[in-house]
Amino acid sequence: IDAYVAVHNNAVKDVGALKESTDPAAIKAAQNALAQRIAAARAEAKPGDIFTPDIRDRFRELLAPQLKGEDGRDAKEIVKDDAPPTVPFKVNALYPEGKPLPTVPAQLLLNLPPLPKEVEYRIIDKHLILRDTEANLIVDYMLNAIR
After folding, report:
1. Quick check: 128 and 141 in contact, CB under 8 A?
2. Phi, psi dihedral angles at 141 (to 5 degrees)
């Protein structure tokens, strides 16, 4: 995560920080410029660079207890209800514009390591993605995080 945040911050320096604006086109253009710069800097990135096999195993261990029993059923329902129909599971892909950003139930977030403001967890169906909040970019993903 630290290495990714360094890439993110260098890209922000190159393209400039996202400025507050009410113009959707300006926001989208700035977001796309940042995403392109990050993707270029991470051209060799592949699934599992952050969610390594050891991390995937550990995350599944951390998530499993929270998905059992009645509370677990509720958490799974929240995830299922929020899931957008199509999201590309591809590193450096843009998260689809206009698609909902499903919430991660609080009891699941509490078990996962905290993240810096530049990235966030999102659960799509049974899969966990790591998304750049400013660039709207899929940084990495973990298939079948929830069982």
Report:
1. yes
2. -150, 160
